[in-house]
Amino acid sequence: MTSRNDTARKLSPWKVVLPTVLGFGMVGFFIYRDFHKIDFTVFEFSYYSVLFIGLAFLMMFFRDFGYVLRLRILSSGELTWRKCIRIVLLWEFGSAVTPSAIGGTALATVFIWKEGVHIGKSTSIVVATSFLDELYFSLMFPLVLFLFSKAEIFHVLGSAELAHRFFVFSMIGFGMKFSWAMLMGYSIFINPKFFASLISGIFKWKLLKRWKNGAEEMAKNFETSNREFKTKSFKFWLKAFLTSFLSWTSRYWVLNFLLLALYYSLKFDVYAHFMSLQDHFLIFAKQLVMWIMMLVMPTPGGSGFVETIFNSYMAEFVPVAGFVFVMALIWRLVTYYPYLFIGSIIAPAWVNRNFRKIKLKKKSKK
Q1: pLDDT averaged over every residue in the chain
Q2: The predicted structure's pLDDT at residue 4
Q3: Maximum distance among all alpha carbons in the chain?
Q4: Residues near 49 by Cβ (< 8 Å), separated by ≥ 6?
Q5: What φ, ψ does residue 13 adopt, rounded to 5°?
Q6: HEC-encoded secondary structure of the chain
Q7: Model confidence over 71-129: pLDDT tens digits?
Q8: Alpha-carbon distances, residue 354 vs 122, 264, 299 (angstroms)
Q9: How many domains, in total, are found in the chain?
Q10: How far apart are CA 34 and CA 328, in angstroms?
Q11: Greatest mean pLDDT among 257-266, 267-276, 307-316, 356-365
Q12: Mean pLDDT: which of 24-38, 182-196, 243-257 is highest?
């Protein structure tokens, strides 16, 4: 159903260049504009800064480890650790080069399928991961709204109108995520045939009829796999959800540790006190909201949008004038750009290796 050319086009080099240019271009402009405001005399080297930067990278490790472990659980061990690591890196790369609303999900089924899992079960695994991710947001977003006031979460320095827009964006994004979680949950736990029927129905359209037989076979396998998921124990789903919780929570604590590294890089008299525990949870809450808002942004991986919104949304936690965009760049360099770099290296070789096998098989049949 998926040709080598289609997959290669989705992973093409220009899709790496575009988000990089958008992100670096936007941040570079604002750094250039505000660079003169930065007082570099307030900085001094601290070993604590190195420690907290190391902890930020440790959070990234836990983030990816959670994803890898989740794939092992959902595939019932069918995918080896090595295959799971490769899939996660390709999946994150796919998320980085596609609009946030799409993410890497459209490509993830292909990644899992080509690592030896039949197409129906691959689709079921992707649906299950999507359900677990959206379940995390469906639970955590109401929780942060309960723990913090609307004024605290959506506070933007100097702009009540922008704060209201952020609130609207986040509610739209949450509505989309909650609806998708319910749809996926219904397909997995109540009516496994529903999503399979949806797939079959879509490929009955005239433009997609050439793939109808393959789609029906996939839908049949998907329904079988989903019925298998439906029989899984509560313990199975709890373990799978906890891996999702580990990944997303670790992702959001990266910024907390980077901000601590910044604070410990400043001379003591620059700030009155370090961030309190409540500040840390508020930073966590704001990141979760920012990720939900990204869902309505059309740019790959939210590039340009995230770097720009960081200036107004997180400025209150950056105690050095003009440094907020530098902080945004450091944060994205740790959490986003490594996947562009790694993916651009492994994706072309992966596509050539996996899709060349199909091409050789077709030739041998002739």
Answers
A1: 78
A2: 45
A3: 77
A4: 261, 262, 264, 265
A5: -55, -35
A6: CCCHHHHHHHCCCHHHHHHHHHHHHHHHHHHHHHHHHCCHHHECCCHHHHHHHHHHHHHHHHHHHHHHHHHHHHCCCCCCHHHHHHHHHHHHHHHHHCECCCCCHHHHHHHHHCCCCCHHHHHHHHHHHHHHHHHHHHHHHHHHHHHCCHHHHCCCCCCHHHHHHHHHHHHHHHHHHHHHHHHHHHHHHHCHHHHHHHHHHHCCCHHHHHHHHHHHHHHHHHHHHHHHHHCCCHHHHHHHHHHHHHHHHHHHHHHHHHHHHHHCCECHHHCCCCCCHHHHHHHHHHHHHHHHHHCCCCCECCCCHHHHHHHHHCHHHCCCCCCHHHHHHHHHHHHCHHHHHHHHHHHHHHHHHHHHHHHHHHHHHC
A7: 999 999 999 999 999 999 988 887 777 665 555 666 788 889 888 888 778 888 988 99
A8: 16, 48, 28
A9: 1
A10: 13
A11: 257-266
A12: 243-257
**Smallest Cα–Cα separation from 335: which of 249, 252, 259, 243?**
252
State both tokens at 307. Answer: 């770097």
Q: How far apart are CA 1 and CA 120, in angstroms?
A: 12
| CA distances for 351 relative to 73, 94, 159, angstroms | 25, 13, 47
Tokens of residue 86, six digits: 């490769």
Kindly calculate the radius of gyration of the chain based on its CA atoms and give it in whole angstroms. Answer: 22
Q: Which residue has the tokens 């086009």?
A: 9
80: Cβ contacts below 8 Å, ≥ 6 apart: none
Count of positions (residues) in the chain: 366
Bridge partners, residue 43, by sequence: 266
Nearest residue to 89 via CA among 118, 117, 58, 60: 60
Please name which of 281, 169, 188, 170 lies closest in space to residue 228, comparing C-alpha atoms.
188
Using left for φ > 0, alpha for ψ between -120 and 50, and beta otherwise, residue 356 falls in alpha
Range of the domain at 177: 4-365
pLDDT at 324: 79
Cβ neighbour number for residue 231 with a 10 Å cutoff: 7
> From CA 166, how far away is CA 168, in angstroms rounded?
5
Task: Give the separation between CA 217 and CA 263, rounded to whole angstroms.
Answer: 57
CA–CA gap between residue 253 and residue 293 (Å, rounded): 18
pLDDT of residue 272: 47
Six-digit token string for 286: 């704001």
